[in-house]
Amino acid sequence: MINWLLPSAPSDKLVPKEQMHGAFIKYRTRILVSTILAYASYYIVKSNFTLSSPYLTKDIGLTTADVGLVLSALAISYGIGKFFMGLLADRLNPRYFVGVGLILSAIFNTFFGYTRSLWVMILLMIGIGVTQGIGSPCCQKSLATWFDEHQLGTATSTWNISHNIGSGTASLIVAGTVGAFGAANIHSIFLIPSLISVVMALIVMVLGVDTPESVGLPKVNKSKQKNIKHKTSWGAFHDNIMKNPIVWALCIMNAFSYILRYGIENWIPIYLSTSKGFSSVATNSAFTIFEYAAIPGTILLGLLSDKLLKGRRVPIMLVTSSIILVLIPFYALAQNIVIIDIILGILGICIYGQQVLIGIVIMDALPVESIASGIGLSGFFGYAFGEVIASYGIGSIVGKTSWNAGFGIVAASSIVCIISFIFLLKKYHNTL
Fold it and tell me: Which residue windows are transmembrane per the record (predicted)?
């Protein structure tokens, strides 16, 4: 019944040698396009609640602590889901598995718009979190399968713009839905993004590809160590991940990086509307700028790490963390929407650039058979710890004190990142 979810068998018909170069270009393009579309659609669903939170607080009476609690449910379930779904993704066909996860996530999101109960919201958000955990491991597994070490940084940073395309597009969808149906029509704010994501899931499953061998192409060049095959997911996890100190260090660092990201991103709509008094149009525009500015910036940082630094990523991450630390007080103090938009654009570039580079280093450090598991583990740390602090922690603190206390948590996390990246550079200066 689920045989179609299993990895595709190698093709009996091999691509002629003289056609291999063109075939690789064609299929790699399809992989990039399909993974970008897939994960952008995941983010259309995932960003839905954050963008709807001002309307939910106004019309339903949710507090900032309630919003933080729901977002924490998403963070914890997403982190756990990402880890276990990563283990599954290493053993399944990512082309179809990624589509199934997106459809299930969209179904949960649709029901979200029809409830006014906080606890039902939390349960539905847990369902969204678990199914959302399928997306990133599948996409990054596909990239690692099709692109070698000299292309992976550029390919992954290009794919990473899907985060920004999805979140930025989600803000436009929510704004358009509110304009068409009214802010009180909450179910439409969740239904429309869900329908769009289901359509995209079907397109992705048609467009995607499993492995090079499944279409008659040879494996992408990897060292023998990179192609060791274990019979079980646990065996691969134990040998490839548990014994790898670089992966564990970066997983922990990912938690602090996610505090930076969600400590800013999750609170843009509420912070700018309540603290600064900006309109919904201005807050949605600021959110979109935060997401869209990272698109060219993330690609550029990936290119720099591949071409200029010859695969070294950590020096760039040290610079991005430093810039974030400098800009946080300016973001807290600024009153002009243009200045805030500029600051958010730079923060978006640095935060997303840093996160994609952490993922690339993890992919560099692991054999192909454990890429999805490693990404899943880093996601667990990022969401179950990092986003919980950025969501519920900051939401609770802001409710009891002020926004400055919330920004203090973000600033402290950037300092931890700076210190940790300096340590990694000294210890692994030849490889990172």
Answer: 27-45, 65-84, 96-112, 165-184, 190-209, 246-264, 284-304, 316-333, 339-363, 375-399, 405-425
25-208+238-427 is classed in which CATH architecture? Up-down Bundle (1.20)
Q: What is the pLDDT of residues 201-255, one digit of tens each?
A: 999 999 999 989 999 999 885 553 455 567 677 788 888 888 888 899 899 999 9
Q: Give the orientation angle of helix 280-292 with respect to helix 161-181, to 10 degrees.
A: 160
How far is it, in rounded angstroms, from Cα 324 to Cα 308? Answer: 23
Amino acid, res. 101: G
Domain ranges of the chain: 25-208+238-427
Q: What whole-number distance in Å separates Cα of residue 159 and Cα of residue 237?
A: 25
Residue 411 reports pLDDT greater than 80: yes
Reduced to 3 states, what is the DSSP secondary structure of residue 47? Answer: coil
Q: Return phi, psi of residue 222, to 5°.
A: -140, 155
Instruction: Write out pLDDT tens, residues 113-162.
Output: 888 889 999 999 999 999 999 999 999 999 988 988 778 888 988 998 88
Give CA separation, 336 vs 125, 278, 288, 293, 342, in Å.
35, 10, 17, 19, 10
Q: How far apart are CA 318 and CA 312, in angstroms?
A: 12
pTM over 0.85: no
CA-CA distance, 351 to 372, in Å (whole number)? 22
- Residue-averaged pLDDT of the chain: 88
